[in-house]
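hiii, so i know i said id send this last week but things got crazy w the move. better late than never?? heres the sequnce for the chain we talked about at the cafe, plus the structure i predicted for it. fair warning i was half asleep when i ran it
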Amino acid sequence: MSSFYVHNFGCRATQADGAAVERDLLGRGLSRAPSAREAEVVVLNTCTVTAEADRDVRAAIRRVNRENPGCRILVTGCYAQRAPQELEAMPGVRWVVGNTHKHQIGEIVNISCHPERRATERTGVPSKPGVGLLGWGSEGARAEGPAVCHPERSEGPALTYVGDIFAHTELMAAPVFDGLGYDKTRPNLKIQDGCDNRCSFCIIPFVRGQSRSLRRDDVLREMDALVATGFREVVISGINLGRWGRDLAPASRFEDLVRAILGRTGVERLRLSSIEPMDWSDELIELVASSPRIAKHAHVPLQTGSDHVLRRMHRRYRPWHYEERVRKIRNAMPQAAIGADVMVGFPGETETEFEENRRFIASQPFTYLHVFTYSARPGTPAAAMPHQVAPEVKRERNRVLRELAAEKKTEFMKLLVGQTVSTITLSVIENGRTETLTDNYQKLWLEGEHAANRILEAQVRELSGDTLVGTVFQRFKDPITRSTDRPMY
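okay and structure toks below
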């Protein structure tokens, strides 16, 4: 039996893709290795959203090849889709599989690991060395049919499987667990992939393709399976989550899917991942605010608070539109977590525009920010724009916004002291305390040791440094006071 190891880079969607690959490989009889050093096949599931992400992948390939020279490396994901020629030339890489063929990784690896199955499990004419399904290899030739892997050949060019991403219709979906390393808590289910927007800085549509949705019945089936397994909180995510259902026939709305999940599954807590500001409809805000089973958490990508920069980014809203949406969320949910992605150093960003951005962010009720530095992606309109911002200027602007984000986070945590919150236990226990994640997306350490995957009511007692500390409440009716909250010591 061959062993494999999957290393995921990047976002929740990439992690979900990696989980689907693992599920497929396990179903084909391969075994999961504890590390890349001990695996016969290492799958690197890549991100390409920034130049730094690309560097991380190349460094990982070199490290795996150095530490485990006998393994076969399969590089897949967004970097593999964008620039397969950069990856297939690297020592140790056996296969390069773009997002167009990621759903065939199990078949590709299984045939290589079991050559006797080649004749019965694959048909088609063998391709030239270095050429894969519907793709181009190092020789630049077009494959005439499905590639046949040659496991006996350890040297030679990598086999490349890359096709037209805009003709791609597959959507891989398998739950993936919390990226922070916690076990048995908060699985993430990807229900949408691809994006039909064309932001001038973003490579994602060109490596993930058009927006496509997991059908409602498939979403409900996956949710039922997670609930039956015992999970209490499930995160649903996508590349452009709020666009779920627009591509289905008949078309459906994201709000209707959320209602179906609440009405037809027993999930105790549903958390929504990032949703674009124009998709936070009044109806969705009301639904999240009114349901005790939906986490009070809204991640609303901003990118910048400068109107001029937003226009150059080709974003579909203006700062006042964004502010109106966020204010409605805050008014409907006074204790909700509200976060945003923000970018510094977009081409042509002047000091005046950056200051507009900083002031706008300071005026919004954010509880956290993900601050990114602009990174030029080959082939995007922004990469060819004039007046690229100097690296040292981008670093300083990043620092300013990160400090602002830290201030806002601290202000929000202070407001929670003395409040009762709902929180889910994670698997980390230190110094007689258990780490938990609150409904409104705050790390909270509870006194005492508590099993993972429990939703508890807790009182926030103090803010110790940058850490919230609390005590579990026991919910019951006292026969004398009729109180429903009693601290459990």
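btw The CA atoms of residues 434 and 450 lie 6 Å apart. thought thatd interest u
miss u guys!!
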